[in-house]
Amino acid sequence: MKQRKLKKLKWNKKMDSNRVVLSIVFLVLGFMIAFSFRVTKDDGDQGNRLTDRQWEQHISLRNQLIEQEEKNRELQKELNAKQEKVREIETSLSKEAQVFFNMAEDAEKYRMFLGKVKVSGKGVKVTLADGEYDPNEENINNYLVHEQHVFKVINELYISGAAAIAVNGQRIAHNSYILCTGPVITVDGYQHPAPFEITAIGDPEVLSSALNITGGVKDQLVNDQIVFSLEKQSEITMEPLLGN
């Protein structure tokens, strides 16, 4: 009986020891679980804080970018306005430059017409000669070159765009006069015998076409028994007029 009680007592002590061990194990295990959960939670909270910080930085950079874009738009508007002003100034200057260029060009043309400058260029040479003597013709003037014949050629050349004209090498000015005195003509006081060479600087094609047009100056002169010849010239030079 005593031995049985002794065994039971030992068994109880053993069970108590096992409970203590199990309690310690569960305590350690619980502590480890709690510690692991706490660490995991702290890591998660820390990760969330970093993400929030990054998001705040992203928002800040985005706001800065929007602000910078707004400034760029304002600067672009200002630049466009200044460029428009520059274009207006350039247009105004170009118009003024064109006006000055046209004035200079016109002045040069007037100098050429007035015979104030030496000119050279392509053109034509028209030769007017007296017709052949006809014993049956009672009036000799009917086949001689007269001032009206010369005037017809000069006027047609000017109308066709001639820049300068000369008769037998003598420049014609805006106030030139031509008179017929027998077999010669007088240009600004200088006499010239036939044949009369009328040279003109201008587009040879245009000038020759104007003179050769059907029913034009050439046909009229030929009908008046005038010998008419026309040559295109690659280079004609005319000296300026002297004196007043």
UniProtKB/TrEMBL annotation:
Species: Mesobacillus subterraneus
Protein name, as recorded: DUF881 domain-containing protein
Phylogenetic lineage: Bacteria, Bacillati, Bacillota, Bacilli, Bacillales
InterPro entries in UniProt: DUF881
One Pfam family in the UniProt entry: DUF881
UniProt feature coiled coil, ranges: 58-92
This protein's UniProt keywords: Coiled coil
Endpoints of the signal sequence: none
Record flagged with keyword Coiled coil: yes
Family statement: Belongs to the UPF0749 family.
Gene3D superfamilies to which the protein is assigned, alphabetical: Protein of unknown function DUF881 (3.30.70.1880)
